[in-house]
From TrEMBL:
This is Putative NTF2-like domain-containing protein. SUPFAM superfamilies: NTF2-like. It comes from Rosa chinensis. InterPro entries: DUF2358, NTF2-like_dom_sf. Pfam families: DUF2358.
Amino acid sequence: MRATLKITKPCESLPRIQTRPDRLSNRITDSPVVEPAKTMAGVCCSLRLQIPLLSLPTTNHGIRCCAKAPDNNPKREETPQILKLAVTGVTEFLRLLSPFNTTTTTRLDKATDKRRDEFPDVGIDDVLMILEADYKNAYFVTGIFTSAIYAEDCIFEDPTIRFQGTELYARNLKLLVPFFDSPSIGLEKIKKGIDSEANFVLATWKLRTYLKLPWRPLISIDGSTVYDLDDKFKIVRHAESWNVSAIEAVGQIFRPSGRSDD
């Protein structure tokens, strides 16, 4: 945009115009141009300033202090779809071979419903404390966790699989427990945070376990889990991240550890 300013004043008394580019947006690329008209003494001068249209950023005056929910896998590699399908297929196959029959499953469901009533009102500090206790009980490798702090339709995901439902998660854990040999899960750190939209808890951990397969593979993963909470402080998303890719993690299953079968 060009603004033209005409000043009717003797040229000899025309004040010197100085610009302060440092006070303008750094988006200004053209310097102001002063073009005096051809005049004789006592005749008016024409002063024209060329000032590009400033594109100043809009400012949001509302300020909110918060800690953004961290991406616990900033270097995430896309897991091949065929690997995700394979993991899902193996999980379903294990479910068919599971010793948990319908009666056992029904008892598990009833126990889950009962535990949901144990914590009617909780806050983020309560959730953190309960999660810390679950880690001490090694819930990853025992299948025993406090389902009452999870929403029924909670989303569970890791680099190899994603599904919905707390009861399904409990069953999947139970499927894996019989295959663990000398398992351990160590909690490294757990903390709470406040996102711009929701609360969350972040836990980092180390998982070590042998599998009860003839070649005794060792599963060794350092990981973290983000627990996203809703406005009632129920966990609505349980998202794991690992220090190895999904392909590397699955590859550990087929690598002999050299450990003898005791």
